[in-house]
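Final report, Chapter 2: Outcomes

The project's central promise was a pipeline that accepts a single protein chain and returns its three-dimensional structure in a standardized token representation, suitable for archiving and comparison. That pipeline is now operational. To close this chapter, we reproduce one record exactly as it appears in the project archive, with the input sequence first and the structure output second.
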Amino acid sequence: MRVPLLGGRDFTDADRDGGRRVAIVDETLARKFLGGSAVGKRLNLGTPERPEWWEVVGEVDNIKAFGLEHPDLPTLYRPLAQHPWPLLAFTIRTAGDPTALLKSAEQAVWDVDKDQPIFRAIPMNALAVQSLALRRVSTLLLAGFATLALVLAAVGIYGVMAYSVARRTHEIGTRMALGALPRDVLRLVLGQGARLAILGVSIGVVAALVMTRFMASILFGISASDPLTFAGVAILLTSVALAACYFPARRAMHIDPMVALRYE
């Protein structure tokens, strides 16, 4: 499985039944129960009355055995010869397509024991995809709803700004008749939209910070209050809002002052 070995050694053929009982621990177990340095120490896996001592001969990196969203749990590895277990899982590393070897792998087991049941034979990449399926669907749904919300927000801002420009046609015509240039009108309309956009984004960021504790359970590898994410989303929403304001502002630039002054 290529779990990195951080210290000590791996299991060898000498670690068999009747020999010295050895174990490998992960970094979390070593830190929580063995003071950080695990190699050479002993673990009692029995009871105080009937101790069962195992010597730690290696330390490996942590793994996500129960899903990416779960914290690292203390993990202990023991040789199968010294600690038999009725349920086994084998992994086979291949140079080509692993699905082509599934039948051969099953047949190899049955050649040893024809009555041995095989519960599941699946490529590792398919297993990884299945383990992330629920999270992937949730992410796609959230992304879809977020995109829809962004589009609706842009359409809403455009509608509000277009209505505002239409209501202020007489005012804009008066300004232009008094000497206002088209760029002044553009700055006026965009400035109004920018103020509303910045106010809305600020309220949204504050609300999002309050809601981060509910989002933490569906995130992995990133903080729920990641500053780069918040900054990126704020910039994106502000840019969309300004883009939605730009087209009504462009229309306002081309208002004919004479027509606007007669506008009711």
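Archive annotation: The two ends are 77 Å apart (CA to CA).
This record, like all others produced under the grant, will remain available to the consortium after the project formally closes.
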